[in-house]
Amino acid sequence: MTQCSECGKMLKTRAGLLCHTRTHAHSGSYYCCGKAFQDAFHLRRHRASKHEGPKCHVCVKCGKSFADKMNRGSIGDDRDEPGKTGAPPGTY
User: Fold this and answer.
1) Short-list 91, 25, 88, CA closest to 61
2) Left, alpha or beta for 91 (phi > 0: left; psi -120 to 50: alpha)?
3) Are residues 32 and 64 both part of a single domain?
4) DSSP class of residue 92?
5) In degrees, to the nearest 5, what angle opens at C-alpha 69 toward C-alphas 66 and 71?
6) Which residue positions does the secretion signal occupy (predicted)?
7) pTM of full prediction above 0.90
């Protein structure tokens, strides 16, 4: 276990500590939609889910489409879990 000297957070590995300390170094170097992202990976994930690519995961209750399954629960409209709706695969 290693500890962040900035905030005291305990991390399992030195690599994890290195990634964590970058969050203290800058408030985000990558920008889109008025939001700052810590690294290029998170910016690419944002662009893929909000601006580009297919949105093939559809909510059967509200009809909204998502690029990945993670986003379907972020709206909080009590969507059913996959498989419990009787909906075809790829829908929620």
Assistant:
1) 91
2) beta
3) no
4) -
5) 60
6) none
7) no
Q: Extract the tokens encoding 75.
A: 């709206």
Helices then strands, each counted (H, E), the chain = 2, 6
39 and 26 belong to one structural domain: yes
Residue 16 phi/psi, 5-degree rounding, is -65, -40
* Apex 62 CA angle, 58 and 64, nearest 5: 45
Q: Which residues constitute the domain of residue 6?
A: 2-50
The strand pair at 65-66 and 57-58 is best described as antiparallel
